[in-house]
Specification:
Distance between the termini: 75 Å
Strand content: 35-45%
Shape: elongated
Number of strands: 31
Structural class: mainly beta
Length: 468
């Protein structure tokens, strides 16, 4: 299920708490002996419309009464006319007061009752709610990922942030840690390589238009256990050119969408302010319904999904990545699970690739080429090459054995993949745009399992087109 926690943050204002934050007021000469402490976590627990407060009664307390109001409501709290809540026992109470007004001063009151039914001294704490134009929320939380949303009003042009662990806050404030920043309207933020069941902290410092620190955030994040959330497994079989990637949902994953591409390809699209500005969940949700335009998003209604994806770079250890947007069984988005994986490492023992060519039916514009490769050949670059040009290159000092293979690959000509079938090992090409009376090479540049790092011997079959 989706774990969502919303927080805004504390205005760094002088009215946050008067000197007697847990002060006793209006002492009664016949009052009880029980006491209560009021604690407000001023790093993050105050937002524009709510505040979370912890009441801690003394051990001899048998009950607790609390309320929120204005500074002048102390008399009403004392005589019971201010709307109050009463609980029995001396257990600590964590209470959230909601529906408050932004940028407003409130006072929280509390009093404990002793074993004789007498109320003790009244404790109070003053609170200023935050600006409603600023929002920081932990939108999605999974065992290995946390996604945040920051929105800034025009009064706050910048916020610095850092995702770390307990103990990093002072270093963040002092600038010892390299913090990232968000400017103007806001941004989506995400961390996708977290550890399950682990405590983290999200820190932020919001700057006002005068350049002052206006608000601080110190938000605790505890990643849930894997068993508590929708989950996804990935298995794959691949080579340097193509692979099958199998995604298997579990733990109540109702449906899911996979964004799969070469690592880093989507970074600008996801993060640039001119595109999705870090809002990766919204991006994938939008692309789910644009199948004809988007070729790297794949969807499943909760069944095992096989994704076949090619790697045009044809290189060993090419890294790919998959962002999997998972939904729970009710159809609500739960968050992102991230995978990174790569094509096989270079195999120094890979057998050499070999190819052969037969040229037939020579005409004024070309000929028919019959290509064949052996079982050790993963693929082959092939084309028609002007013989005079090639001979000049071969006579130059910079020529290498892999010259033609690298040249054809860099120019995008032509590639044939050997999938092990008859058509994979044997194919035909018709050259039809040659010039009459011109000398050409029918060329083949085979590669083994190492792709363009494993060229075999270049094969050239010379012929001359017919004169007109």
């Amino acid at each position: 299920m989706s774990k969502i926690a919303n927080f805004t943050f504390l205005a760094v204002l002088p009215l946050l708490c008067a000197a007697g934050c847990n002060k006793s007021e209006y002492a009664d000469p016949i009052q009880g002996t029980a006491t209560v402490a009021i604690d407000v976590d001023r790093n993050f627990a105050i937002d524009s419309s709510s505040v979370t407060v912890t009441f801690t009664p003394s051990e001899n307390s048998t009950g607790l009464r609390y309320a929120i109001g204005l500074a002048e409501d102390i008399a009403g709290f004392k005589d019971g006319s201010l709307n109050s809540t009463t609980v029995e026992g001396n257990q600590q109470q964590i209470v959230t007061f909601t529906d408050l007004q932004p940028i407003s001063l409130y006072t929280v009151y509390a009093v404990a009752t002793d074993q004789f039914g007498k109320e003790g001294e009244i404790a109070s704490a003053k609170i200023v709610t935050d600006d409603s134009g600023i929002l920081i929320e932990n939108s999605f939380l999974l065992p290995t990922s946390a996604i945040f949303n920051i929105q800034l009003s025009s009064n706050y042009p910048r916020a610095y942030y850092y995702f770390g662990q307990d103990g990093d806050f002072d270093a963040f404030l002092s600038g010892e840690l390299l913090a990232d920043s968000v400017e103007y309207s806001g941004k989506g933020l995400y961390w996708l390589n977290l550890e399950p069941e682990t405590d983290y902290k999200f820190f932020a410092k919001v700057i006002d238009r005068k350049g002052n620190t206006a608000k601080l955030v110190n938000m605790p994040i505890h990643t849930p256990a894997v068993s508590e959330c929708p989950d996804m497994d990935l298995e794959f079989v691949n080579n340097v050119y193509t692979g099958t990637y199998t995604f298997t949902p579990s733990n109540g994953c109702g449906r899911f969408s996979v964004l799969l591409d070469q690592k880093g390809t989507m970074d600008a699209m996801i993060n640039n302010s001119s595109s999705w500005n870090g809002h990766i969940v919204e991006m994938i949700q939008t692309w789910e319904y644009e199948d004809e335009m988007i070729t790297n998003v794949f969807e499943s209604e909760g069944e095992v999904l096989d994704v076949v994806r090619t790697t045009p770079s044809l290189t060993c250890e090419t890294y790919l990545e998959a962002y999997v947007l998972m939904y729970d069984e009710s159809g609500e988005p739960a968050g992102i699970k991230y995978f990174t994986f790569n094509t096989p490492e270079f195999d120094e023992n890979a057998p050499e690739a070999k190819a052969a060519i037969k040229v037939e039916n020579i005409s004024t514009a070309g000929a028919i080429y019959y290509y064949s490769v052996d079982e050790n050949t993963l693929g082959c670059m092939y084309d028609t090459v002007d013989a005079e040009w090639y001979d000049e290159q071969a006579a130059s000092g910079d020529f290498t054995e892999d010259f033609l293979g690298n040249t054809l690959f860099s120019q995008g000509y032509y590639f044939h993949y050997n999938d092990g079938t008859e058509s994979g090992m044997n194919w035909t090409f018709a050259e039809t745009i040659g010039q009459p009376g011109t000398r050409y090479y029918a060329a083949a540049c085979p590669m083994n399992a190492n792709g363009i790092d494993g060229w075999g011997e270049t094969v050239l079959v010379e012929y001359t087109t017919l004169a007109e």
